[in-house]
Amino acid sequence: MPELFGHTRARIGPRHALITADNHVNSSIPGITGATAVVLVSPAMGASVAQTLLTFERGGAARVAASDVQTFGYVMDGAATVSVDGVRKALKAGGYFYCPAGSEWGLSGPRKGTRLTLFQKKYAPIAGVKAPGALFGDQAKVKGAPFLGDPAANLQVLLPDTQGFDMAVNLFAYQPGGHLPFVEVHIMEHGLVMLSGEGVYRLEDSWYPVRAGDAIWMAPFCAQWFVAMGKVPASYLYYKDVNRAPL
Ligand code: UGY
Ligand code: MN
Predict the structure, then answer these.
(1) Could you report the per-residue pLDDT of 98-124, keeping only the tens digit for each?
(2) Which residue, 61, 175, 179, 217, is most buried by CB atoms nearer than 10 A?
(3) What 8-state DSSP symbol labels residue 139?
(4) How many angstroms separate the alpha carbon of residue 59 from the centre of ligand 1?
(5) Global pTM?
(6) Does residue 129 sit in the same domain as residue 28?
(7) What range defines the domain where residue 113 resides?
């Protein structure tokens, strides 16, 4: 719904950004057809990761050539068949895939309105450590754990925590009133999409009301904290860079 008098909750700063669903403008991306693509986080704003929301029409498709970029894709709603290096898998909401650098991926047969969030970043290899292979998963099959022992903040880690991976993608689900236990300040960067519910995100010295559909970028060392509000649980999917030395 358009905001009155040019008001928006969006804020794009040098070290963090918030983009709401009302701000979306489509891009045309090579290899993606019959879909809208909204780039929400990108190196153009100072990030090292790209976060893109794809919404497919019936008959839409993706065919993305191999490069030095790795791709993680998460199905937010709908269903489609995804292939990575020729291995095909039917994914529905909560399903996800990881396509390593050097591999190609594609999507076909989407149900109308199927939405995916992609996190994409150049892979940083380490000598002597095997790069990860392709992977498919389902959020429903990933065991969660109370974050730092707090059952009001449940964390699911979607990718294996092994040295080969230089990116992690996790799901956080908070009961109303659940919150991050402290204000985090860390070298890892985040790209994030709110999947459900609402709450307040602290980013550096600003506090933002946020809700499902909002996207957030946090630069390395951006002070961050979240509290879930409202009557239903809040959840978000987020990216972070991991397992590499600072220099
Ligand atoms: O993994 C994280 O750094 C996570 N606790 N950060 C966040 O939710 N903003
Ligand atoms: Mn964090």
Answers:
(1) 999 999 999 999 999 999 999 999 999
(2) 217
(3) G
(4) 36
(5) 0.97
(6) yes
(7) 24-138
Q: Looking at ligand 1, which residue's alpha carbon is closest to its atom 2?
A: 240
- Tell me which amino acid residue 7 is: H
Ligand 1 atom nearest to 170, measured from its CA: 1
How does DSSP assign 150-212, residue by residue? Answer: EEEEEEEE-S---TT-SEEEEEEEE-TT-B-SS-B--S--EEEEEEESEEEEEETTEEEEEET
The ligand 1 atom at the shortest distance from the C-alpha of residue 218 is 9
- pLDDT single digits (tens) 188-210: 999 999 999 999 999 999 999 99
Of the residues 86, 112, 138, the one at which a domain ends: 138
In ligand 1, the atom with minimum distance to the C-alpha of 236 is: 8
The first and second tokens of residue 217, run together, are 């970028």
Residue 4 pLDDT: 82
Ligand nearest to the backbone CA of 236? 1
Angle, vertex CA 124, rays to CA 118 and CA 128, nearest 5: 130
235 lines ligand 1 (CB under 6 A): no
Verify whether ligand 1 is closer than 6 Å to residue 172 (CB atom): yes
- Ligand 1 proximity of 240 Cβ (cutoff 6 Å): yes
